[in-house]
């Protein structure tokens, strides 16, 4: 299914795996692309690298804390033999279904030694950097193998896929969505399923691959599978290749059967936990009509780009972490022109492949717009195909705007193909000049800026030195103030660091995760939400931290606090010298201290924190 590499007669087959390598030294090109990708990735993440222990992602500090927690939990899992897909360390007393979140289990295990010795902070920024670089390099290898001969063409296409605006946006916190290498690696193996006589081996490899990738980027794997299916069906129905598609069908189906058995066996428990385990929920905790791509966003520039430095950035995304398209008008124009030029110069069999690629891009383009058309932040009463899919399994747990990330791959392929045309000098001199200028004009405005960062509160000595153990029973419950949420995630981070070091561990109420709207069996049919259902007492401290609001407390409030503390079985609350909000938000520490003192009385000064001991069922005492 190559659109460029020479193949026999009318065949669209890719070159055989055993075909001789191209002339020259391909390893030099591979090394050059790998180093360039790594340099760009370090450039994008340099703010974190400058001080991994004190710097956090200001646009999404909560997700960074969550993934650091998962990395710490990976060390805890290996040391205690705990369930990688469910934990009772958060959201006491109910726990958290990690399979219904993004558990990144493969990463947590592979990086456990680094996490243990250097901390989750180092593992996090290392994985984030390698994700970006690895995505660009994987796409380069894929395009070089299946689509183009020129390392320049493959390298340009790969760099675009790895550092496109959507993936730079998701570099604000998401270790799952920055793992863009999943798509080319899986698609590569899918294309190999048709190899005669190797259906068993190829099916086995793909099954293991799917099981591993599921724990890293389940939603991205779903999109990859959907795109692969659309591509294969569209390609197989094309007249010029219908006969060879029919000849390969038996081998492919046998391989897919093996894949289903292997992946099904390996994923049986994770899938059970995801769909039927404790603390599951229905759909997602996010509004799919809100998290849909604005049509105008495709024509706009992202907030972290050169264009944004000149005031051309856009705010059409729900937040800075979800700018999934934002290609800009010049790139959209280039893609249309490139598709026409490549199509005109392709033989019929190659057009079958190009048509399938364009169909995939078109389908995901429209689906990314969600259930209704959105234009310039206004929802129009025009229904779209996603409205019919929104309540189907898997689709009900997806966010439509992220489907635009598949369009990134299609655009990267078109960029590689048109660059190959330039390298081969198959265009007229005027077109050569015009297309080259168009590539520069399209890519320069969206060249990425580093992700934004901010200072975050250091781990207090009370936690780092293990002083907390003198105040909490074994496996007891403790909480930093304010309680852990996505916008006040310090307490969850410090639990992560404690898990990474090994040894005794504490549990915490609340936390940042996706869970049911109502805890227990009643919540299974409800939609999800961020964090635990809020109670009166934790909201008391959250409100003080976010808004500086100090409530006038009554004995009724104290009675409610006694019930809440007994419900969590919390033994200690503590307030550090510094607390961190997201997006450079100032949290009102003094208001938190005043609220805690009014509720519980004067604190103890222990190390560098204020401590309030809690006797469940007794404290706070009525006044």
TrEMBL record:
The keyword Metal-binding does not apply. The keyword Transmembrane applies. Keywords: Membrane, Transmembrane, Transmembrane helix. Pfam families: DUF6311. Coiled coil: none annotated. This is DUF2079 domain-containing protein. Residues 70-396 form the DUF6311 domain. Residues 1-24 are annotated as: Disordered. Residues 1-16 have a biased composition (Low complexity). The chain crosses the membrane at residues 29-49, 122-143, 150-168, 223-241, 253-272, 325-343, 352-370, 399-419, 431-451.
